[in-house]
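Incident log, structure service

09:12 report received: a user says their structure output differs between two submissions of the same chain.
09:20 pulled the input from the user's history:
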Amino acid sequence: MPHVSLPASGREFSPRDVAGPLVAIRQDVEANLHRRPRIAARTNYFSYLADAANVALPHTDYRGLVRYCELNDIDYVFLEHRRLSAFPFLGNFRQSDTPRFQRVYAGNDSGASPVELYRFERAGPLLETPAKVEGDPK
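09:34 re-ran on a clean worker, output below:
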């Protein structure tokens, strides 16, 4: 009977891909936050390993992401570029056009795709809000 071994990681998650961001978040939380962080991420793997509250990452543009982070008290955003290519806000991060986010970690996953961790800056430039929201009867 042949020996069957389990893979070192699943298709959704590899511990090697989050080792660097985990070190970075622990150092940043200790230096800047001093409490259990809230992380917006595509899945909860990273948040679980970072001992953080996980909040789903919204499929929105940059302005929507900033508003979402404000409303949900998000401390960090974890970005796996390979898995987020269809997310509209990703273009801002690729172009470093993210004044409300401070990069804490940048590296690559095992497939050579960018993996980044950002701290959300609550005290930043306010985004313009339209007077009327589409679909709002007022």
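09:41 both user submissions now match this output. Likely a transient worker issue. Closing.
09:42 reviewer note: The mean pLDDT is 86. Residues 16-120 form a domain with the D-Maltodextrin-Binding Protein; domain 2 fold (CATH 3.40.190).
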